[in-house]
Design a protein that fits this description.
Helix content is 82%, strand content 0%. By secondary structure, the chain is an all-alpha fold. The longest helix has 31 residues, at 60-90.
């Protein structure tokens, strides 16, 4: 299990698969999608904290500091998503809009996490933002996003299997 948490490619692929499932849910049931996106904020945050924890398993001080910083980053995204749901409960926004806004909160949180952890999280954030824009403005957008997700995964696979000049794999960033 920790091998998969430490692999940027496997985590990226899992995040994109979960995001594509969310795109399907948003396309078929926009009024129920906010529950899924809120769940993904929790899941992606837990994955990011666990990843930071396991990557620094020999340095307890750095491990604790990184886990706290990552946890606070994702806690901010979770609080923003909860506030969006509070707006829904108070009647300030409609249920269809709640899913899109929560998806944008997730996109921004993943993207900004990617600025610290590598291009794969940033690409996931861009994918989520494009999916939200596609859902808001276009009737048919799912196939284009599936093609984009496939291209992202293929490029990630290519980058993770490309040997570096020193002979080791450089899929970390």
């Amino acid at each position: 299990m920790t091998k998969y948490l430490q692999s940027n490619h496997y985590l990226f692929t899992a995040y994109l698969v979960l995001s594509v499932i969310g795109v399907g849910i948003s396309a078929s049931s926009p009024s129920a999608s906010h529950y899924y996106w809120l769940f993904l904020v929790l899941l992606f945050g837990a994955g990011a904290v666990a990843r930071q924890y396991y990557q620094l398993k020999n340095d307890a001080a750095a491990q604790k500091s990184q886990a706290i910083n990552t946890g606070l980053h994702w806690l901010g995204g979770l609080v923003a998503a909860i506030i969006v749901n509070a707006f829904l409960s108070s009647g300030r926004i409609f249920v269809e809009e709640t899913g899109l806004i929560t998806q944008l909160v997730l996109a921004l949180t993943v993207y900004s996490d990617g600025l610290k952890t590598g291009w794969r999280n940033s690409a996931t954030g861009v994918f989520l933002a494009l999916a939200a824009v596609g859902a808001a403005y276009f009737d048919s957008y799912v196939w284009q996003l599936l093609a984009l997700a496939g291209a992202f995964v293929a490029y990630s696979f290519y980058k993770s299997s490309e040997p570096s000049p020193k002979g080791c794999l450089h899929g970390s960033r």
